[in-house]
């Protein structure tokens, strides 16, 4: 374990052969991950890519006509694609923003000198531990226009005694699904931010205080920049997850009412599975990857522009 | 590149040669290559070819867990079948209805299953896409007379048979006897849809806030209700030339009827977010007086453990509209997969499960497909309230369009019908839009 | 410095509000699981059931189920899920920590490209890969096995671990590592003896959430498993909500039970998750 590299060798190790050495070390460290991931998915990934170039309309093998990029072109000519893309963008941006804002707030709270901190932290874990399909069923039940708890609560509190069909109007339903998603997934943001907060040395705050910075200023000037890497990581994770949201839609609304909660992953599912348009579905799937990529890049750029260093 | 699976049914089991860990990696890259090489056969990569087989050996079957026969029923039938056919070993898998289609599709290229349960809306899709086998040659002619008309058409597409009917179902009209009595409504009124409206108005006056509940969520359930009304109002999905026709006549009248019940406050607004189970819940808690639903609701709505209105539930044939009273065909059939290498054994199993004695024995779970069973006192006494209604209804059923792209058309129709129900579009407009989309789908 | 009294009161009030928002839906889940069906269907919710029923839990844990009972399958699903999620997490965490470190600290060619290649795999919707993966697993005889699920899930959870860990390593101060190497550690030595202990909060957080990714996964499990041999919790619960037999109380009971293992896990690890660093090396 202990090496013989002495201090005197270090400067040289930084350049020249050091680069090569680093490259080999990196390969060594990355190889297991590459095997675990690409060993499994390379064939499916390549095959799906190939399928997206053919007019495949069945799960069964056969000779399907090669259509080049036609499937991709057809996606862009498909009105429903723009509708579901709109829903997905809205879902992604709103849910990610809410989760991030609430997550940072709760993390700061949990990092403050609360009594019985373990208790509060355990509470925050609960929604995360609830399986998504149960979460969907639970909120569908709470929103139920007939005997749902939400209408019951509003009635009990004397706010409203006319039941609302929470999942009955397309746009309202989309927002209600977002609430259910935020309730569950804010947990992950809280814990990543909390872990990030631990890496901020407390003497920095001391220094900021000595400099006369108030808590608000310290938050924007110190906490947020120091948290930038954690923010970037959860932002991108949540964006990816939100963009391919499927389970909760499947359970809560089935894409209704009037397709108001149909997202792009759900639409892909309908096309590829229910309708067996595998070529078209494959093209949709790859466009999802491109779209998420574009979003992720945009986030990273914004974070970097705001001088939130450390993000790479 | 063909995989080396020696026999069907072994894919998930222990018979197939287990690859080593290294084999997995090598196989992964080799398969990756094959993905590009077999570009002309991109659908499946390396799927199996079906075959008759020896009429014995192992077969694997896929069923659903809910509705109709229970898992225990099917295991019992299977055990009895294996006892009678010692050369055949059957493994039965169960998934929820929602997963049945997707699992069948995903498993098709690999040939995991020999026998699959298919819904009435799938024969066209599965037949044309080569997922289930054409069994026309195996179908005895006399079955066409001995089975109920609705049963015979269930697995049929394009004059071919893609399976054998097994579970028969359609939607009946259920009502709450106590509430009708209180509102002084004569149940005989419920014989027509006009009468249902009159009754619903009276019920509303008597204090039932929303007398009607339906399964109108954006899902297949919505199309089932719509189909039944479309039939009653004399519409049809497709005209003789195979073009969409639901945007004319009865098809529009049916949707206008649906929308009007919402506008008049007769239909529970939760209907547009409800599936069959939600309908059952609302009806069973006494919050709706009249509902369409499948056979199963009768037993559960009368079960004190499940319902607050046991004993107050009655069932009728679906009401008639200006033109007729067909029930939506909600049946299911057993099919052989195209990739099964043991189709002869699979067929024996299907023959056994669908045979009249077996179906009569389990009539309490699901009504037989055989016409003469409905006069068998033993069958009638399993469910004296439902069987007489079923006898009337099951001979008169309406099919949803039997086209390969049915699912896609259904999705379009669901979305447009919902827009009309929510008042975003006029029914005529919504159906016109759906029809033009559907016409495109039928072309491709 | 001592926090002021007003500040202390304020944060506790905020914590209570937060707890209410988090707990209320969860409490409703628990209450629904012990309410009789009839009460669940009352037009106005019974905030507390008039008649408690533990029947659903009894159905799940009772021995009367036999092979065919949906509820009885739940127990094996629980074990399957636990095994699959644990092994997946262990595998993904080990390879993810190593790879994440490489991405964070080493300079090599195609660093960004390969990082994004891993992320791209994570971005692909599972629907796109189900059919080819099914065929691959079928050919390898791994359908309906826990091994098959572990292999599949590791390919999803690993990119997640790589991404979170590489970013976590980035947030660690570099000087400590350099100091360790000055002290005479090799790169590997510094990684194992210095970096990993420092990164413990990040590793455990990543592990916890990686566990849930596997615990929660639905679509692959639905399609790839068919017997109690490998069916997982989400599939078992989905089977409660069948075409004609859904009782929300039963789903709720299943949900409550499914929540217990991850919560226990989180409780066991939570004091390690937060707390390592502030009291540790950096401060000094």
Describe, in plain words, how this protein is organized in 3D.
The complex is a heterotrimer of chains A (312), B (444) and C (284). With 312 residues, chain A is an all-alpha fold. Chain A contains 13 helices and no strands. Chain B has 18 helices and 13 strands. Mean pLDDT of chain B is 87; it is low at 1-46. Chain B has 444 residues and is an alpha/beta fold. Chain B starts with 20 loop residues before the first helix and ends with a helix. Chain B is 42% helix and 12% strand. In chain C, helix 4 (70-105) runs antiparallel to helix 10 and helix 8 (174-182) crosses helix 9 (187-198). The longest helix of chain C has 36 residues, at 70-105. The two termini of chain C are 18 Å apart. Mean pLDDT of chain C is 83; it is low at 275-284. Chains B and C meet through helix 1, helix 2, strand 2, helix 3 and helix 11 of B and helix 6 of C.
What would a concise description of this structure say?
The complex is a heterotrimer of chains A (312), B (444) and C (284). Chain A is mostly helical and 312 residues long.
Main features:
heterotrimer; B: about 450 residues; alpha/beta; 5-stranded mixed β-sheet; 13 strands; about 10% strand; globular; C: about 280 residues; mainly alpha; MetI-like fold; 2 domains; about 0% strand; flat; disordered C terminus
Query: Taking Cα atoms only, what radius of gyration of chain C do you get, to the nearest Å?
Result: 23 Å
**What is the strand content of chain B?**
5-15%
Specify the oligomeric state.
heterotrimer
**DSSP helical segment count of chain B:** 18
The topology string of helices and strands of chain C comes to: HHHHHHHHHHHHH
Name the helicity range of chain C: over 70%
> How large, in whole angstroms, is the Cα Rg of chain B?
23 Å
């Amino acid at each position: 374990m202990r090496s013989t590299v002495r201090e005197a060798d270090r400067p040289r190790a930084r350049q020249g052969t050091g680069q090569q050495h680093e490259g080999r070390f990196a390969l060594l460290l990355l190889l297991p991950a590459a095997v675990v991931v690409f060993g499994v998915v390379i064939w499916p990934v390549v095959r799906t890519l190939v399928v997206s170039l053919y007019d495949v309309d069945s799960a069964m093998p056969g000779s399907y006509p090669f259509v080049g990029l036609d499937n991709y072109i057809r996606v862009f000519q498909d009105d429903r694609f723009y509708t579901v893309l709109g829903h997905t963008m809205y879902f992604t941006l709103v849910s990610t923003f809410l989760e991030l804002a609430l997550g940072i707030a709760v993390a700061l709270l949990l990092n403050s000198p609360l009594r019985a901190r373990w208790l509060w932290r355990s509470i925050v874990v609960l929604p995360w531990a609830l399986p998504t399909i149960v979460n969907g069923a639970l909120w569908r039940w709470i929103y139920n226009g007939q005997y749902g708890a939400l209408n019951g609560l509003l009635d009990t509190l004397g706010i409203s005694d006319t039941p609302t069909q929470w999942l009955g109007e397309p746009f309202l339903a989309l927002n209600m699904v977002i609430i259910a998603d935020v309730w569950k997934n804010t947990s992950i943001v809280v814990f990543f931010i909390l872990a990030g907060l631990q890496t901020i040395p407390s003497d920095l705050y001391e220094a900021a205080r000595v400099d006369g910075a108030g808590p608000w200023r310290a938050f924007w000037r110190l906490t947020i920049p120091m948290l930038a890497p954690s923010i970037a990581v959860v932002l991108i994770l949540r964006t990816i997850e939100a963009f391919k949201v499927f389970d909760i839609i499947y359970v809560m609304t089935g894409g209704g009412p009037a397709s108001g909660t149909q997202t792009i992953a759900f639409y892909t599912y309908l096309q590829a599975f229910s309708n067996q348009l595998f070529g078209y579905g494959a093209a949709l799937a790859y466009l999802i990857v491109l779209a998420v990529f574009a979003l992720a890049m945009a986030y990273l750029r914004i974070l970097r522009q705001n001088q939130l260093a450390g993000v790479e | 590149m063909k995989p080396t699976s020696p026999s069907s049914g072994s894919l998930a089991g222990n018979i197939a040669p287990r690859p080593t860990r290294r084999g997995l990696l090598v196989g992964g890259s080799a398969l990756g290559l094959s993905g590009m090489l077999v570009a002309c056969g991109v659908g499946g990569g390396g799927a199996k070819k079906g075959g008759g087989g020896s009429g014995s050996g192992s077969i694997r079957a896929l069923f659903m867990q809910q509705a109709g026969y229970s898992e225990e029923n099917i295991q019992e039938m299977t055990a009895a079948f294996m006892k009678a056919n010692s050369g055949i070993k059957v493994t039965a898998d169960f998934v929820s209805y929602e997963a049945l289609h997707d699992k069948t599709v995903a498993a098709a290229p690999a040939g995991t299953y020999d026998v699959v349960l298919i819904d009435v809306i799938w024969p066209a899709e599965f037949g044309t896409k080569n997922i289930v086998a054409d069994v026309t040659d195996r179908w005895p002619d006399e079955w066409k007379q001995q089975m109920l008309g609705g049963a015979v058409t269930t697995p049929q597409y394009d004059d071919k048979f893609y399976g054998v009917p097994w579970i028969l179902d359609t939607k009946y009209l259920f009502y709450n006897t106590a509430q009708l009595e209180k509102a002084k409504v004569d149940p005989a009124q419920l014989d027509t849809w006009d009468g249902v409206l009159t009754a619903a108005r009276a019920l509303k006056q008597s204090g039932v806030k929303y007398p009607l509940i339906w399964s109108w969520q954006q899902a297949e359930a919505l199309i089932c209700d719509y189909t039944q009304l479309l039939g009653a109002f004399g519409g049809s999905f497709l005209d003789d030339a195979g073009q969409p026709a639901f945007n004319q006549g009865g098809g529009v009248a049916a949707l206008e009827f649906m929308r009007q019940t919402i506008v008049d406050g007769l239909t529970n607004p939760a209907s547009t977010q409800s599936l069959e189970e939600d309908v059952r819940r609302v009806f069973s808690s006494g919050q709706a007086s009249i509902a369409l639903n499948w056979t199963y609701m009768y037993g559960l709505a009368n079960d004190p453990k499940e319902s607050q209105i046991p004993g107050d539930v009655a069932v009728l044939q679906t009401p008639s509209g200006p033109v007729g009273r067909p029930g939506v065909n909600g049946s299911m059939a057993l099919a052989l997969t195209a990739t099964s290498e043991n189709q002869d054994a699979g067929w024996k199993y299907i023959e056994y499960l669908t045979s009249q004695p077996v179906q009569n024995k389990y009539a309490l779970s699901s009504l037989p497909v055989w016409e003469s069973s409905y006069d068998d006192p033993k069958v009638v006494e399993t469910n004296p309230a439902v069987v007489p209604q079923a006898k009337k209804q099951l001979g008169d059923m309406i099919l949803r369009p039997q086209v390969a792209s049915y699912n896609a058309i259904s999705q379009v129709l669901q979305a447009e019908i919902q827009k009309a129900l929510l008042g975003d579009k006029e029914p005529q407009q919504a159906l016109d839009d759906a029809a033009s989309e559907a016409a495109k789908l039928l072309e491709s | 410095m001592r926090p002021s009294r007003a500040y202390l009161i304020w944060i506790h009030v905020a914590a209570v509000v937060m707890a209410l928002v988090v707990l209320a839906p969860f409490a409703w889940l628990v209450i629904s699981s012990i309410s009789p069906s009839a009460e669940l269907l009352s037009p106005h919710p019974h905030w507390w059931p008039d008649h408690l029923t533990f029947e659903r839990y009894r159905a799940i844990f009772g021995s009367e189920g036999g092979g065919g009972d949906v509820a009885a399958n739940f127990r094996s699903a629980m074990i399957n899920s636990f095994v699959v999620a644990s092994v997946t997490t262990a595998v993904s965490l080990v390879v993810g920590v190593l790879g994440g470190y490489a991405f964070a600290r080493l300079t090599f060619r195609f660093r960004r490209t390969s990082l994004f290649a891993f992320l791209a795999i994570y971005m692909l919707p599972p629907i796109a890969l189900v059919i080819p993966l099914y065929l691959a697993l079928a050919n390898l005889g791994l359908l309906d096995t826990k091994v098959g699920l572990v292999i599949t899930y590791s390919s999803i959870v690993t990119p997640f671990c790589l991404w979170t860990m590489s970013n976590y390593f980035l947030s660690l101060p570099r000087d400590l590592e350099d100091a360790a190497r000055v002290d005479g550690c090799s790169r590997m030595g510094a990684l194992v003896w210095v970096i990993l202990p420092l990164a413990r909060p990040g590793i455990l957080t990543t592990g916890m959430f990686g566990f849930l990714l596997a615990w929660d996964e639905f679509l692959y499990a639905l399609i790839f498993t068919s017997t109690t041999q490998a069916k997982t919790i989400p599939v078992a619960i989905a089977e409660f909500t069948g075409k004609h037999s859904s009782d929300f109380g039963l789903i709720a009971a299943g949900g409550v039970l499914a929540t217990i293992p991850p919560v226990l896990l989180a409780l066991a690890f939570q004091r390690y998750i937060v707390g390592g660093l502030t009291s540790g090396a950096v401060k000094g």
